[in-house]
Specification:
Number of domains: 3
Shape: globular
Strand order of the largest sheet: 9-8-7-6-10-11-12
CATH class of the largest domain: Alpha Beta
Bound molecules: NADPH dihydro-nicotinamide-adenine-dinucleotide phosphate, (2Z)-2-iminopentanedioic acid
Distance between the termini: 23 Å
CATH architecture of the largest domain: 3-Layer(aba) Sandwich
Helix content: 40-55%
Number of strands: 12
Amino acid sequence: MSPKTTIDDVYAQTLARNPGEAEFHQAVHEVFGSLDRVLAKHPEYVQASILERVCEPERQIIFRVPWVDDTGRVRINRGFRVQFNSALGPYKGGLRFHPSVLLGTVKFLGFEQVFKNALTGMPIGGGKGGSDFDPKGKSDGEIMRFCQSFMTEAYRHVGEYTDVPAGDIGVGAREIGYLFGQYKRITNRYESGVLTGKGVTWGGSLVRTEATGYGAVFFTQHMLATRGRSFDGARVLVSGSGNVAIYAIEKVHELGGVVVGASDSSGSIHDPDGIDLELLRDVKERRRERIEAYATERGGRARFLPGASVWQIAGDERVDVALPCATQNELDEADAARLVANGLVAVAEGANMPTTPGAVRVFREAGVLFGPGKAANAGGVATSALEMQQNASRDSWTFEHTEERLSEIMAGIHERTAETADEYGAPGDYVVGANIAGFIRVADAMLALGVI
Ligand code: NDP
Ligand code: 2IT
């Protein structure tokens, strides 16, 4: 069978076995799109059915999460943990709490995570989890009771050597604290390595909070350098205003760029003088309010665009760099065309799969530097692996040392991705480079471990 026939067959099987899971199909299609040249060089992967195996999670856990709201009423959510691939290490990946979470969402994220984690070169497998619980508008007590109930089931499936969850959308240090507290209580073990993204006073790592956003900006710096460009003076749009977005903005500003727009699910802000990060953090992180409050409190310098995506700002502005840091499929073909028309040089995906396939095509055809999430946002999980390393050695590193490690890891990912793209005849194509480099590391480990 030709590589293309094998890929088409396995993709057809994946669609048939996972009906209705459009995001998972999209993620598989994206990776498979890079693999014909790999199978042509490595017939042993076909013989060992590596493609079929990497699409089938090792284990999928779905559970009921009952909890009591502040009125005394019992509420029910659905919890998930998909343990996708442990060839390289314990399953590793975040938990997402958002009403849109379905099994297919968790599978798409888990699938991406497997290759992202492999690309870091660190000893971590891939997994993902979460719930359709909506943290918006919930009291602190409700969040705690939900997290405790989630862990009351999840504790049997996780562990320092088994599966190590962390944060994602809707899950930050507060939620990780409640989850860890419940794990500790049930198991009677202070097993720091069971979760990452912990508070720095109780086993967390410095730089983990900043790592995904900083890492995405470091990756972009390396891409820009291939064209003799830098962030100095660059006009930048960032979508989202959560964990990844906030620290991407911070690092862009440190490097002399100007972020002129950000967003949340209610709309976007346009601030031509550059975002006031302290104000944005106050509104979104501390007060947990809607982003409109930023424009109101910015004294007439910023405007709020209700319901609009941040990419619409490209109609009024030159934009050099776009950093999608909110959620999947948030930047479409029309957005991409608008950005390209306004001078775009580079895009790096801080979020997982934020760019639609049509938009990726537009960027590719226009010769825009495009850093896929597997490479560009891997700094978060890589720093989680550094947190695991510190926990295992009962040590804690300084901010400077940890940021230096993150910076080296991002440089390594950029180099590995670019070299792999060259080797496989696609110079400058970071999508092909990241998919192939990640896949080969997982595939070789799976071959070595026998029929698993
Ligand atoms: P947060 O919950 O901290 O922030 C998410 C941001 O995206 C918020 O501004 C949110 O707006 C917005 N958003 C979420 N869902 C939607 C939606 N359906 N439509 C429009 N806006 C939306 O999450 P993170 O910053 O941690 O995660 C952002 C992205 O980065 C995700 O794709 C995640 O998978 C990815 N990622 C995260 C890593 C991490 O370490 N945290 C690591 C690697 C990738 P609102 O406030 O209105 O909900
Ligand atoms: O998508 C991701 O890489 C994350 N949400 C971070 C996972 C982790 O284990 O730190």
